[in-house]
């Protein structure tokens, strides 16, 4: 052999030792071995999953049997009449629409809130009027605003 071998006959460490790196305690080898074992377990788990996911081969179907002879049904029993229709239930009044609200956060403006709910920031005055805001340029953080439809 042209390449020198280390004491155990391995060639892999000689390149590192030639570059000035010595690994006397084989640091990192355990981690590398654990990673390889983990990859092998994952591959085995995937193979098992594929085996379980594959549909089992169905047994061959038995040959078709001769159809039984068709006979006239005996006297049929009459079906019971459906129960009388119940009186229609009174309808409940339509549920009130849930009111939309928005809690003001730091940096919010009525324009941004209107743009979020209406798609148009110019609708900010609707929100201001619904909440009795005298100065739309000043809203306090933490205030819960009603958002009209």
From TrEMBL:
This is LysM domain-containing protein. It holds the Pfam family LysM. Residues 1-102 are annotated as: Disordered. Residues 42-56 have a biased composition (Low complexity). SMART domains: LysM. It comes from Catellatospora methionotrophica. Residues 57-71, 79-93 have a biased composition (Pro residues). InterPro entries: Bact_Kbp, LysM, LysM_dom_sf. Residues 100-147 form the LysM domain. Residues 1-18, 31-41 have a biased composition (Basic and acidic residues).
């Amino acid at each position: 052999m042209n390449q020198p071998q280390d004491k155990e006959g391995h060639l892999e460490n000689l390149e590192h030792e030639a570059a000035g790196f010595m690994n006397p305690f084989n640091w990192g080898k355990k981690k590398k071995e654990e990673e390889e074992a983990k990859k092998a377990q994952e591959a085995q788990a995937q193979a098992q999953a594929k085996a379980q996911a594959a549909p089992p081969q169905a047994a061959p179907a038995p040959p078709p049997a001769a159809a039984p002879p068709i006979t006239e049904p005996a006297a049929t029993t009459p079906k019971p009449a459906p129960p009388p229709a119940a009186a229609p239930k009174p309808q409940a009044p339509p549920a009130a629409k849930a009111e939309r609200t928005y809690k003001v956060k730091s940096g919010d403006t009525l324009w941004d809130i209107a743009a979020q709910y209406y798609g148009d920031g110019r609708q900010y005055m609707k929100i201001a009027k619904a909440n009795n805001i005298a100065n739309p340029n000043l809203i306090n953080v933490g205030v819960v605003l009603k958002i009209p439809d």
